[in-house]
Amino acid sequence: MKTILCLCIAAVYAAVAVPLEKSEINRRYVEYYDDNEVWQGADLEEQADINLLSDISRNPANNRYLLYTRRNPSSSQTLQINNRNSITSSNFNANNPTVVIVHGWLSNQNTNINRRLRETFLRKSDVNVIVMEWRRLALSDYVTAVAGVPAVGRGLGQFLRFLNSVTGARFETMHLAGFSLGAHVVGNAGRELNGRVARITGLDPAGPLWNLNSNRLRASDGVYVEAIHTDGGAAGLGIGSSVADVDFFPNGGNSQPGCLTSLCNHNRAWELFDSTVTHNNLVGRQCSNMSQVRLDTCRGASLNMGNDDLNKRGSGIYRVNTRRNYPY
């Protein structure tokens, strides 16, 4: 037993040892506001909570899976891994596509992204919407949350495998969308399923401690992986480099029209995505390099950003220009 515990703790320490990219070496603090608009400073040199990480790693049931359908659009039903009855007695319909929404740091099931995207997807089509809540880790300090993302993602992947075994719901009908740290969570979930889910959308994947992190979202995590970058500057909350099959950089990817703060830029990723699910209105032009992205000189092929198309395909980097207000 002691040997197993030592191995577990060693694995957690390995997860905490995240290399810093050059742009992060002199950046110790990250400023962030939680859902209640309370300032939360993140110290990137803080020691992670090893006990919490060990428990998260051992117990995927720390995640909660809240199902919404057109039969219960505003009151969730809780699905539980390894509990067949929680699924078979719910409104989950294996004949419909499944959308999984994963929030970011300092958030929970009531955060705006969950409500907005849930309502938008259900209004658009008859789907199963599963909001994954991982508040126990998401409400911890940033360094601990980063280190625990792979285990949370694996837990989501294991849940989706269980859902498939109980209902027959095909991975080819699943779309995983995650915001900020949640983008890396859905990447790890897709990896757990050997890249079989139809689509993964990373909404401004978190940047601090992720630039050289091998556990970050990547193109092989799903059949088609897309990332939308809106706050990727040197002091931004998002990652500024390509990580997916297709990477969109709205308005250059660093600052957004109508935004005065980094958090506004960061949140704009899911707000733009929300608009595209309804309107499919934002079209990007392919760029040859990041200089073209910054200078707005992209002249390549067109591709619609976001939307809910499970058969979407593409590759490369794209710039899309938007307005400051919905539908952008």
UniProtKB/TrEMBL annotation:
One MF annotation (Gene Ontology) recorded for this entry: lipase activity
Biological process terms in GO annotation = lipid catabolic process
Tell me the first and last residues of the signal peptide: 1-17
Task: Enumerate the UniProt keywords alphabetically.
Answer: Secreted, Signal
* Stored Pfam families: Lipase
Localization, per the record, is:
Secreted
Residues in Lipase domain copies = 49-300
| Cellular component GO terms, alphabetical | extracellular space
Q: What is its main location?
A: secreted
User: Which family is it part of?
Assistant: Belongs to the AB hydrolase superfamily. Lipase family.
Q: What is this protein called?
A: Lipase domain-containing protein
Recorded source organism is Euphydryas editha (Edith's checkerspot)
